[in-house]
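User: Watch each token:
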Amino acid sequence: MYQIQQIPVPNYGTRGNHKPIAIVNHITVGSKQSVINTFKNPANAVSSNFLVCRDGSIIQFVDIRNRAHANGYVRSPKSPLVQQMGNVNANYYTVSIEHEGYEVRDKQTGELLEYHGVKGELTEEQYQATLWLHKYIQTEVERIYKVRIPLNSHQVIAHHQVDSQKGTCPGVNFPWNRLYADLARIDNMTLEEYEEEVLYKRTARGLSADAYAFLNRMYDLEEKAQGSKYEAEAKRKILLMSPVMGQLGLAADPTVENILQRIKEIEKAAITDGKWQQEGLRKLSIAVAHAKNAGLIP
């Protein structure tokens, strides 16, 4: 399903008598290469078990059997599990996942030149990869330690729940609702069963059911937005698609009219044989995923 690139780093330790019982999610303020450079430098003494990159690739820096140096101090933890563990270094009993998210600023003026997912906005490729990685970690921990990590909000947590001084890491826009809903659905599947489902959904046939529901929803909202008593609410819901329209190729401002027009263009490309069909299907899958996360479709 996913090939995990192995880049061993010197910054790690043993787990001692502890076993992994939780997964901690992080976001990076740096690109994939800067993360690699930082983790490979012994002077920095930092690392994570995994990194999920914005293109959906996955890197493993520290074996699950070992303790990465990702979580830092336990300070006023918000996680009940971490509270129960007291002053034990959380790295001993967690597996850590970093997500590539970075910004580029002018070194002299500090002006923001590029902005990516620093606040937790994952690309669709990145989201699907981290969903699979959570399931993979659960499977590997159970295989190695005979311990099962339930994929729920008690044992899949954020860095700031370990250390309250870490702001909102992995970011205020990290897709927790969508992630917990998907993890709950796949929790009791085997990794093989889950991968079969993913492969099916990647086909045009698997996509079409969700895509059909999404397109019908947008056409229904379009109709209601044209002078009915539901006009204001319909327009509000259409505008929920705004954050993803850049990924869907909309160059203009994401107005109600522009959003609907772009979605129709993507639909046409997806259902018409030709060189744009696969790109239309890809963009439609991004739109469907965002609509689910926004609560527009089940």
Remarks:
- The chain has two domains: 4-199, 204-293.
